[in-house]
């Protein structure tokens, strides 16, 4: 599908859109997906609020309306559980519960002792912690509006509680890193990285549940029924243990992207604390400790890449995905040079792929159109763009920025793109696609 079929104003010939037109079209996507309290990732496929989507959306929304960006983040933080976790979905009460599966009845979060505030319906798992970074950048975009609304002083305690949950309850591997207990928690749901660990999970039978995602997206772009059967088994087991992190886990892993984003957010907490006149050193100390643990535990010198670690057998999973490039954005990363070489090498072909492929182009499980098994994603490419700038790779960053803009314009803000030919896949008018484009346009004009 090209931009001309969905956004006539954008690009008639497939050429990159004019920045002002692109900004208008991206803003229109975010306005259409706004529900009054927050922004849905996509009107059809994902009609509720998602955790890391909201953080990326905030990063774009701050250039449209500082006030709305603050609201976006605060509505998510308002669903924080008593134990500090931020749930991966906050269900919109105005949306019929059958519109998305698994819905609030499946998760039954209110039954957990650790659960959400009364009257708020959520899932029970988490997603990567981009929120403190989003809060800090939102403040920096308009410090006067932030101060007027007391934004930082309201969000800081909640963000600290969120990071405490990750540091204390989720250190399942005992090395200081946060673990995930479900592939959905990585945000990169069906990445081939999780295939091995998922083999141990007995799937629910396909006849025992009804998927809603296939009403809105092509089945070749989505996870399989077998994947879904396993996702549901894991989620139901966690739910049936009251979302207790000390209960036994069939699936548990340390993911490099989640932990790298936690480090970025911990640095952001230091910035927030400083702006509030509070001690910031503890956040810097924690960020430094997390960086050491990330490198010592997940960096594989032979592959020149960060790998996930399976906590069931204690071994690193020898599959290269874009998650392993996200640490490029971490300050003072000792292995940045090697990691940059991997990004430019055959596996990811930075500059010669459309966006950053989510999985190794030379890998045995590479599928250029299927969700997190190969396609390029805008949010991950946005973080890697930030990493390239941090590592002084300005030309690579400029090329990626141009690709992000062009791909968004030509696909009508697709959810993800085929990294080989740039064809749009999944949903259109996708919120974090629009948001990351808005942020990059703002960076350019600054
Ligand atoms: C996708 O995940 C959801 C489950 O959380 C789904 O497939 O239904 C992923 O791409 C995830 O990273 C994203 O946050 C979510 C909403 O955009 O969709």
TrEMBL record:
Gene3D superfamilies xref list: 1.50.10.10
Gene Ontology BP term (one): protein N-linked glycosylation
Any GO molecular function: Glc3Man9GlcNAc2 oligosaccharide glucosidase activity
Keywords from the UniProt entry: Glycosidase, Hydrolase
Domain (Mannosylglycerate hydrolase MGH1-like glycoside hydrolase) ranges: 46-433
UniProt KW Hydrolase keyword: yes
InterPro entries membership: 6-hairpin_glycosidase_sf, 6hp_glycosidase-like_sf, Glycoside_hydrolase_63, MGH1-like_GH
Any single Pfam family the record assigns to this protein: MGH1-like_GH
Family from the record: Belongs to the glycosyl hydrolase 63 family.
Record-given protein name: Mannosylglycerate hydrolase MGH1-like glycoside hydrolase domain-containing protein
Organism: Lipingzhangella halophila
């Amino acid at each position: 599908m090209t931009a001309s079929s969905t956004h006539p104003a954008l690009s008639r010939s497939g050429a990159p859109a004019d920045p002002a037109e692109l900004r208008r079209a991206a803003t229109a996507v975010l306005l259409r997906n706004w529900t009054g309290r927050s922004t849905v990732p996509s009107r059809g496929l994902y009609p509720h609020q998602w955790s890391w989507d909201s953080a990326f959306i905030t990063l774009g929304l701050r250039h449209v309306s500082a006030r709305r960006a603050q609201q976006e983040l605060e509505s998510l933080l308002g669903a924080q559980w008593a134990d500090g976790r931020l749930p991966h979905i906050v269900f919109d009460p105005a949306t019929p519960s059958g519109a998305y599966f698994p819905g609030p009845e499946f998760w039954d979060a209110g039954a957990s002792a650790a659960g959400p505030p009364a009257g708020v319906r959520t899932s029970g798992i988490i997603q990567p912690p981009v929120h403190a970074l989003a809060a800090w950048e939102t403040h920096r975009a308009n410090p006067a509006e932030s101060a007027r609304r007391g934004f930082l002083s309201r969000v800081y305690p909640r963000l600290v509680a969120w990071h405490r949950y990750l540091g204390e309850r989720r250190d399942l591997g005992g090395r200081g890193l946060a673990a995930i207990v479900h592939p959905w928690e990585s945000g990169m749901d069906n990445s081939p990285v999780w295939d091995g660990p998922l083999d141990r999970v007995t799937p629910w039978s396909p006849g025992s549940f009804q998927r809603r995602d296939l009403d809105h997206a092509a089945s070749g772009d989505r996870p399989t029924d077998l994947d879904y059967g396993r996702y549901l088994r894991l989620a139901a087991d966690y739910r049936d243990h009251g979302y207790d992190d000390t209960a036994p886990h069939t699936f548990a892993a340390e993911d490099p992207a989640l932990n790298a984003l936690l480090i970025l957010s911990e640095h952001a907490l230091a910035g927030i604390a400083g702006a509030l006149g509070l001690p910031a050193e503890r956040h810097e100390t924690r960020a430094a400790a997390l960086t050491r643990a990330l490198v010592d535990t997940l960096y594989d010198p032979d592959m020149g890449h960060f790998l996930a670690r399976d906590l069931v057998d204690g071994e690193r999973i020898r599959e290269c995905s874009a998650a392993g490039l996200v640490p490029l954005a971490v300050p003072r990363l000792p292995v940045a040079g090697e990691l940059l070489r991997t990004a430019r090498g055959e596996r990811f072909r930075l500059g010669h792929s459309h966006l950053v492929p989510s999985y190794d182009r030379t890998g045995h499980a590479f599928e250029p159109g299927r969700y997190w098994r190969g396609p390029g994603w805008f949010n991950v490419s946005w973080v890697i763009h930030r990493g390239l700038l941090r590592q002084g790779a300005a030309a690579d960053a400029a090329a990626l920025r141009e690709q992000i803009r062009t791909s968004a314009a030509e696909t009508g803000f697709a959810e993800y793109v085929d990294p080989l030919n740039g064809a749009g896949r999944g949903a259109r008018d996708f919120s974090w696609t629009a948001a990351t484009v808005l942020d990059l346009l703002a960076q350019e004009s600054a």
